[in-house]
Amino acid sequence: MIAKYSFIILTIIFSNQLLANNDYFVKKNSQAIRDSLNAIKFVNPNDAVEFSFQILENYSEKRPNRVFGSVYAALGQIYHIKGLPRQSIDYLRLAEEEFIAAIDYVPPWQIINFGNIYFANGFFDEAYKSYKRAYDLFTEFKDNQEFLEFNKEQNFMAGQATSLNNLALIEIERKNFIQAEQFFRQALEIRKLRNDKSDKPHSYLSLAELYYKWGKFGRVSTMCDSSDIAVKNYSISDKSIESRYLGMAEQYRAIFYDHIGNSIKSASSFNKALEHYEKLPIEKTRLLSIISSLKFEKGELSEALSNTNEALSIAYEQGLNREKINLLNDKKEILYKLGDLARVQGINEELLQINKANVTEQNRDMLINIELKNELSAGLALLNKQKEQRKLILAFSGLSILILGLVIFSIRNQYLASIQAKKLAEQSKLVAELELKTTERELRNVSTAIMEKNEMLESLKKDVNYASQFLSNSDSKHLIQPLKSKLDDASLGKSDWVEFKNHFDRAYPNFFDELSKINKNLTIQDLRLCAYLKSGQTTKEVAQFTGLSVRSIESRRYRLRKKLGLGRNNSLFDFIQKLKLPEVSHTNFN
Questions:
Q1: Concatenated DSSP letters for 21-64?
Q2: CB-count exposure of residue 233 (10 Å: 0-12, 13-18, 19+)
Q3: Distance (Å, rounded) from C-alpha 67 to C-alpha 49?
Q4: How many CB atoms lie within 10 A of CB 204?
Q5: What is the distance, to the nearest Å, from the Cα of residue 318 to the centroid of all Cα atoms in its chain?
Q6: Per-chain mean pLDDT for the chain
Q7: How confident is the model at residue 472 (pLDDT cuts 50, 70, 90)?
C-alpha cells in the first residue's frame, strides 16, 4: 500500500498537470495523502517539503483537521533531520495546536518528535522524560476504545516499541548497556506480537549497534544475520525501508570487520551497504562520513577526503544542514593534516556562508504567517462587500413593500449588521494578533541568528589564529590575512544593529520617542541597550549580541538606571517591558 502511495505522490510532485488538479486534496483521500507524505519524508526530504506546502495550500477539508496536523508534524521531522531545530520546533508546535483543536488530544508520536530534538541536541534527561511519557500514553491508548476509534491497536504497539527503542538509545549514551539491552528486548517482543512484523529488523539492528558499543563483538554478526532473515521472511512493501534495513546490516558488519582487522570483508560490506543506500541520501551521507573517519584514523587521507567530498555533495543537494556542517569540519581536519591551509581558509568562508543561509532558511516560515494574514485581510474585504450588498438589497426591497415590511426588514438588517460587525471585529483582532506575533517572531529569530553568527565568528577567529601559529613564512601568513580581515569586519556588528532595528521598529513602533520624552539626554548606546532589554535579552545575551563583556553591559545598565531615575527596588527590565507606547511617528534613530 505504501509503495502505491509513494508512486502517487511522486507523480503529483513532478507533474504540473496533476498539481493543478485539486480533486486529489479532498477529505476522502486524507489517509492516502498522509501515507504518501510519510513514505517520502525521510527518503526525499526536499520533495516532501514541496508536497507538504501543496497540501497546506490545496487541502479542502474544514480546519482544524488531522491532515494539517500530520503535515505540520512531518515538516517538523524533516527540518529536524535537516539540522534546523528552530523551524522543527515551530512546526511541531503548530501540529500540537492543530491536533488539540481537531481531536482534543496530542498524539504520543508528537511527544516522541520533541524527544528526538532534545536527544539530537544532547538534552538526554528531557528526551528521556518525553520518550517515557510517550510510552505510557501508547500503553494507555492501546486499551482505550475511545482512541481505538481513530487508530489501530497495531499503531499504538508500534509506538510502544519505538518509545522503548529510543529509551535504550539514551541508556547507551549513559553507558548503561544492561538497561539498554532490556529496553531493546522489550521492543523486540512487542514487534513480534504485531500483525505487521516488518519492523522486527529494526530491533535486531539496534541490538547489533548496542553490542558493538558494549564491546560484545561476537553478537554483532548474529544480530545482523537475524535482521536479514527477518527481511526475507516478512514482505516489506516499501522497498526504501527494505533497502535501509539491508544497508544497516552490512554497515554494522563492515564496522565489526574493520574493528577485528579484516579489511577485505570490511570493504566488501561497506560497498554492499552503499549499494543499498543508493536511493537513501541521508543514510548514504552518514555512511560515507563513517568510512571517511575510519580512513582518517588509518592515515589514508586522500581516500578520506574523497569520501567526505562525496558525502558533502549529497548533503548540499538534499539540504542536510547538520550533516553539511559536520562534514565541512571533518574536511577541514583532513586538510589540516595534509597541510593545505589555503583550502582550510576556503572552508571557513564556506561555513560563514552557511550561517547566512541558515538565517534565510529560518525566516522562510515567516512567509506562511504573512500569507495567513493576507487570507484574513481578504476575508475582511469579502465580509465588507457582502455587508454593502445586503444593505442595497434591503434598500431596494423596502421601496416595494408596505411600512410594516420596511420595519421587519429594518429589524432584520440591524440583526445581520450586528453579526457582521461582530465577525469583522473578531477578524480584525485575529489580524492584529497575527501581525504582532509575526513581528515579535521575526525579531526573536533575527536576534538569535545574530548571536549565533557572533559565536561562530569568535570560533572561526580562534581557528584562524591557531592555524597561523604554524605558518613559518611571510607568504603563508599573507594567505590567511584576508580571512582575518573579513572576520574582523564581520565582528563590527553595524549591519547587525541596522537589521535588528528594522525588525524592532516594526514590533515596537515609537519606542525610542517614548524614551526620549523621559530623558532627552539618553545616548545612542543607552537607546540600543533599552531596545535589547525590550526584546527580552539577558545581560549575557546582550554581551553576545554586541561583542562586549558582561561587565561592560552591567556598567551601562547601572548608568542607564540613574538616567531613568530608578531606585534600588525598581527593576530596569520591568520598567522597559511595561513602558506604554502611544501611536506616534517613528524616531529616525540609527
A1: -GGGSSGGGHHHHHHHHHHHTTT-HHHHHHHHHHHHHH--SPSS
A2: exposed
A3: 15
A4: 25
A5: 15
A6: 79
A7: low
Residue 286 φ/ψ region, left for φ over 0, alpha for ψ in the -120 to 50 degree band, beta for the rest? alpha
Closest CA to 308 of 325, 328, 322, 279: 328
Listed range (68-82, 187-201, 468-482) with the worst mean pLDDT: 468-482
Query: Is it true that the peptide bond before 64 is cis, omega within 30 degrees of 0?
Result: yes
Dist. CA 470–CA 105, nearest whole Å: 60
Higher pLDDT, 561 or 400: 561
Q: How far is CA 338 from CA 311, 335, 341, 343, 416, in A?
A: 19, 5, 9, 10, 79
- Please report, for the chain, the start and end positions of each structural domain, with discontinuous segments joined by +: 341-507, 508-590
Tell me the residue length of the chain: 590
Work out the end-to-end distance of the chain between its first and last CA atoms, rounded to an integer number of angstroms: 60
Cell 565541512 found at: 328
The secondary structure of residue 587, as a DSSP letter, is P
At residue 565, the 3 state secondary structure works out as: coil
Residue type at 414 in one-letter notation: Q
Closest-CA residue to 337 (of 495, 225, 527, 467): 467
Element holding 454 (H helix, E strand): helix 403-468
Global pTM reads 0.54
* Inter-CA distances, 537 with 136, 335, 448, 543, 590, Å: 37, 39, 10, 10, 20
Region class of 584: left (phi > 0), else alpha (psi between -120 and 50), else beta? beta
In which residue are the cell numbers 493543478 written? 20
The pLDDT assigned to 163 comes to 94
CA distances from 447 to 252, 503, 532 (A): 43, 10, 9
- Contact of 25 with 47, CB cutoff 8 Å: no
Domain 508-590: which topology? Arc Repressor Mutant, subunit A (1.10.10)
- pLDDT for 364 equals 55
Say how far apart CA 465 and CA 474 lie, in whole Å: 15
Q: Decide: residue 576, CB within 10 A, 0-12 exposed, 13-18 middle, 19+ buried.
A: buried
